[in-house]
Design brief:
Length: 658
Amino acid sequence: MPKFLTSLLSAVLSAAVLAISAKAQQKIVRLNGTNSPELRKARLLAPLEKNELVQFAFTLPVRKQAALDDYLKHLYTPGDPLYRKYLLKGEFEALFGPTQEQYEAVIDFAQRNGLSVVGKHSNRLVLDVAGRAETVERALSVRMMRFQSPNGRIFRAPDQEPALSVDIAPQIAGIVDLDKSIEPKSNHMLRAPRREEAIKTEAPSAFPSGPAGGFAPADIKTAYNLNGLSQNGSGQTIALFELDGFYNSDINAYDSQFGLPTGTVNVVSVGDTSAFPTAPTSATPDPSGVIECTLDIEMAKAAAPNATILVYEGTNFVSIYNRIASDNAAQQVSTSWYYGTDSATPASVRNAENTAFQQMAGQGQSLYGATGDFGDQVKTGTDASGNPIFVFGVQDPSAQPYITAVGGTKLTVDAFNGAYKSETAWTGNTTGGSTGGISTVWTLPVYQSLAVSPGSNGSSTFRNLPDVSLNSDPNTGYSVYRTSGFPTKSGSWIAVGGTSVAAPLWAAYTALVNQNRVGLGTGNLGFANPTLYFVAHARFSADFHDITSGNNGTYSAVSGYDNVTGWGTFNGGNMFSDLTRDAAVFWVDGSYTGSLSNGGQTTPFKKVSDALNTAVIDIPTLIYIRGGAYNETFSNSKPIVFVNNGNGNATLGSSTVK
């Protein structure tokens, strides 16, 4: 380092030490988990200019976390008195959110330390603030520095974990977006231009029928057996998480091409979004973020054209998710962006996301997230030469336990009528493929306890992903209209793949399901995984396309659940009825001696055969069996799942019920 720069750094750092000397006399608590492990790989350059604006957010802890966990367990247990008894708007903060006094204490702390409050959240879990670098340094006992990542990207971050005085520390769970060492990215891939020679040798094909050779809305419905559904998303709202913007003219062009309703898209800005959509430049004539936001909207409209779409745009991961949760305006939510690997994502970010996702689950919101497009790898950036950098692992937030992680397949349809023919896993890793694997952070959720298939190399102790999949190979991609070009911008059609198209399509499909559930009076589907996993155990071959070939590097597609495609893709018409009706539930207890025995929780059947005879052939049924030996002989062809209800082992002949 040049001598003059060394002297400058020394002088500035000495000033910073003096500036926070008063705090050094107080007892302080370091907020571990604010900075990413990626920061250790970066090179320190220089202090931030003292007047540079720094925006970040405080997160607050949930009140009664154990009670929230217990509530969610009951909420998604069929037969429980709380089953699908979702929280209404405002009830989450009343029961589990920080108190108004706690929130005001954090606001007071921020303002007393010279920080401006730039965003409040109704659930009181996040407080967005901003201040000059020197103000932030005094408030958090850090030195705000400029770093350079191995790929040459310049970013800001604190030199150490922030610290708070002991009087305010208990009110703050974490600090997010102070460390900018990780640059969030989106999950999509454009179809590579095809050589003229290859096009000439291809067999003539009418399907997919969309512009640029992609799937049009009608093609999606035909391929995935949605044509028999009358639902169109009317009365439903889909929220899209976005870190960039879009051009209304692109959405209008998509609507016009396919005859879709207009005026269904609304923007919700979370913070300053004045730079959205990102303008094309000579270096980046086709901004990735704009493509992502545009395709998310168009895919949602493709499957649920009459649904209202709320596009939540912002720059702070946690603030956007928290706003979607606190607004509670959408019954289904989709995200196609990722922060980094789940292990590299700062703990403060992961924990705050998890809280927002728990709130969504508690309110009956269905959340879908793209797992990624590089197989068993996560693209974390590029090196100094522009080559991509890959790290083995899975992405945040799709590895979170309260999100339905959506992987990718390669779909083949009949070239002349568009009907479903076959699917394989979207195979590959660094050149493109369905991301799946095992979280190193989140333990195995209850809904996955019986899911891991032999030969899948899945984990019996940590969260596996994906949960489900849909066509994502860019070579069998979807028609998207977007604006690009520099210096002159213009709109055009492209074919796009990636798991980022699969996630909004699952959200849109759920809008159709929820439209029907509202009509039946059964309420929202809510967090989808408990139901999807139950349906997979009960009616797998009817409701899912089982993907049994292909791999993503480490993991292979196998029969049943696997870490490449999860349970597979939906057979839309078949699965629809099983998602719109709740499971039938019966209890069996061989030790029960009461005279009334009708399969209820307090009046259980005494024989398993009684429950089987009562179950309906076309409704998935859950039978709770209390421990004991049931020496009965019977055959069963009905969609039934048996669950041990306690009191030791329950055996059906030679089989043990788990």
